[in-house]
């Protein structure tokens, strides 16, 4: 990395640091020429020496960096830039020690990355400020979930906003850093082809799925307090919906893009009262099998409270109250311990106005499938004639496998987003009013669930979720796109 900056990582020995942040920095360091201008300090409660921290980092990074990309030489060069300091977020003394490490260079970019629970954000920002560490060249990165509800999200934003100005605050949603999500922006606004069709006249429904096969990955205690709605819908799914539904912005500057995303969030029709049960399915997995191996029920996972009602699955029928999208259902779905790992956006176009050929199925003829995971691809389904006698018309696909088209290594979302923070580019980060609008929409749902006596619907691990999820969409004559 030819850039000069200090990366000050709170939660430096935590899960996110080890699984995502250090590997992302390793790749950026390895793949750039001049690499000595930056340095990182991991901060945490554990009393680790620098050597112990490097050993811990090495042990984890070996697991999260592809074997073909790992070399001892690249690792030693990377590790030279790393350091560690024990720090108690609530102890002002400890920030002085951090200030000694940082030194006087006020114009140097300082990235304060808060990979900690949000309850510590205020204490950390105040500690940094008291130690004189916040300069105009400083940025703070806030990991999700930012709050548990509207009130707590507002409180966090107030507290952080008292120390950092809005352009210094990077609220991260790593889905916005994924290559395919940016490709969707390119696809929509770099071509004339789709725009005339991208509205209620031609789109029948939109489906956005993020299905995971993994369970709680050792984070049971955290997850049980959060659940799928806060963990995935509030951030990733709503952000994907924004990119699909937003109006063409005048440019890709941060505020122009974010203004358009905000309009989408504000156009979401409220789901409250009786509508919550009618339009939302929440589920919790029971014991089942993943890859033919038995897995326990959510309630039997470590860290889960007895009788917990935390949802591990959500399906929502959302709608936007605006001219472009009125009446078009946006089906959102996410879950842990599902049948497949799959993240995709499917745009179903309406059927032809006058069917000239024998219908092949009830499915619409045209759809655009944007797959984010497990592989990144774009696919447009069209009807074409099968060779031979007669007009036998069947679906075919125009398929672009991005990894084959561009045979370069795909950057992980965190690589791109970290470098954007260093360069001060806010386009792919959420603004305060976006976060507020997302929480405002979720607030009545959370309240309803809190009052409700209904437990989440059960589904067996290794399936596509509760049957009610299929019913939700079948009521409109639609079906989830699922390939087994
Ligand atoms: C995180 C959630 O934001 O995203 C996790 O907290 C989830 O629960 C993860 O597993 C999924 O990210 P990805 O990139 O693996 O789909």
Explain what this protein looks like in three dimensions:
The chain folds into two domains: 5-143, NAD(P)-binding Rossmann-like Domain (Rossmann fold, 3-Layer(aba) Sandwich); 176-411 and 431-474, Dihydrodipicolinate Reductase, domain 2 (2-Layer Sandwich), CATH 3.30.360. Helix content is 36%, strand content 21%. The chain is built from 14 helices and 17 strands. It is globular, with a radius of gyration of 24 Å. 39% of the residues are buried. The chain binds 6-O-phosphono-beta-D-glucopyranose. The site of 6-O-phosphono-beta-D-glucopyranose has 4 residues, from loops.
Strand content: 15-25%
User: Given the helix and strand composition, which structural class is it?
Assistant: alpha/beta
What do we call the CATH topology of the largest domain? Dihydrodipicolinate Reductase, domain 2
Largest sheet: 9 strands, mixed
Q: What ligands does this structure carry?
A: 6-O-phosphono-beta-D-glucopyranose
Whole-number tally of structural domains? 2
- The CATH homologous superfamily of the largest domain is called Dihydrodipicolinate Reductase, domain 2
**How does CATH name the architecture of the largest domain?**
2-Layer Sandwich
* Helix amount: 25-40%
End-to-end Cα distance: 43 Å
Secondary-structure blueprint:
Elements lengths: L4 E6 L4 H16 L7 E7 L5 H15 L7 H8 L2 E5 L5 H11 L6 E6 L6 H10 L7 E5 L7 H12 L7 E3 L7 H11 L13 E9 L8 H26 L8 H14 L6 H6 E7 L1 E3 L2 E3 L17 E6 L11 E6 L6 E8 L17 E7 L3 E9 L7 E9 H4 L7 H11 L8 H20 L5 E4 L6 H8 L10
Parallel strand pairs: 1-2, 1-4, 2-3, 4-5, 5-6, 7-12, 8-17
Antiparallel strand pairs: 7-13, 8-11, 9-10, 11-12, 13-14, 14-15, 15-16
Helix pairs in contact: 1-2, 1-3, 1-12, 6-13, 8-9, 8-13, 9-13
The structure holds 6-O-phosphono-beta-D-glucopyranose (BG6).
The site of 6-O-phosphono-beta-D-glucopyranose has 4 residues, from loops.
